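Q: What structure does this chain adopt?
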Amino acid sequence: MLRSGFIDIENKDGTVKDEADPRTVANALLMKESRETYYGIAREFLVTYKFATQREYAIWEGHCNGLSFRKMAATINSNFYKVRITVNKLQKLAGLKK
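A:
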């Protein structure tokens, strides 16, 4: 497996190696930076995009504020799956997802 380029992210004792552990400071900083970029683009999309419905706007606004799909669904009297579908669709339109 090593010849194929596989790199094991676990130590022999089963713990995650520092360079792969998202809880390490270096990885946390990288993730923070990419998270800030993501939410910056998402907020810009919130302000500039012409949403088809108020429901779409409310879902994207909730997403920009870090609300869970379930919390958004309860707030707008919908369900988890419809919220997820809407967020996925809007992520693609915003260029945040392929």
